Sequence to fold (248 residues):
Amino acid sequence: MDRRRRARKVLGSLLILALALSTGSVMRPAARAAMQAPQEIHAIKWDFPPKFSNVTVNVVGDAGHNLAPYEFWKDHFPKAGITIKIIEVPFEGVYEKEKTEFVAGSGAFDVVTFYPAYIGDFASNGYLEPLDEYMKKQPDSVWNPHQEDVLPPFREMYNKWAGKTYALTIDGDAHLLIYRKDLFTNAAEKAAFKAKYGKELMPPETWDDWLQIGAFFTRKKGEKLAGQTLERDLYGSAEFAKRGFSFA
Fold:
């Protein structure tokens, strides 16, 4: 493959990272019941037909477990005539490294592992190759990524740009809500919440609940919380949303 063309079009794989909402874990009764219901699991057997002759595929991503999926198949790649070369980059340097090589047109990478926030930049600038036609042309026995098994938010929001598929999810984490049970069971806080909002203080089930509870527990230094005087400001909710990191 011409390296200049490869520099412009890179097959993308996508890493999905979790956001943790911190304010133990909440699960609605319906969701809990669904998890407890019998589940049917299908095993898929993959084969790598020998189609290439000593082809080297350069894969870049953040060092560590996020590149593990390529290790899962390391014994199978040679059967297809493929050598996988992993280029590990420090976590905080993934975007800069990939973007620099794209702009320079170096053709250094064939497959890139990146975070959802980057797909707009990478796809709209023509750095990535759309995967839709590849998925249509290849028979299931050769390649079927089973996109119907991928949760819609990952499949539609994080793998696509402008209606085209540019990436495949390799790590889709769960969103968690952590709350302080000691505050939710405190008699004084429960009474104050009911007096203010006319309902019981319970873990949130909707975003409106979450906003309301966050506002309720936001206090200034010197105010009371569960009978104790606060020595510093308290925020009713907190999210991991450092600017420039993944979704932020």
